[in-house]
Amino acid sequence: MKTRLDKLLESIDPAITLDLISSRVDEALNSFNIKSAMIQNWGEFRNILTDFHWHVQRTVLRNRLSHSPDSEIEWGRCCEILLKEYGM
User: Fold this and answer.
1) Positive or negative CA dihedral for 63, 68, 70, 73?
2) pLDDT tens digits, 32-50
């Protein structure tokens, strides 16, 4: 018979947790829709990127909010990610 500690350790097992998050990331990537594969201007790029960032957050973290609370905040987060990945 499993103890409460055994059950807790099982529930936070990294293999299970990582598989769950990985499947949510796949779901987020596969379910994001854009109207066109071509981005025509900076504003459109910014909107698509912030929409994508918010979509991933909602899908992976199971956030129930339907829209980003503030597009400027989301844009700032996107910029942080881009700078971290690509630098200046």
Assistant:
1) positive
2) 999 888 999 999 999 999 9
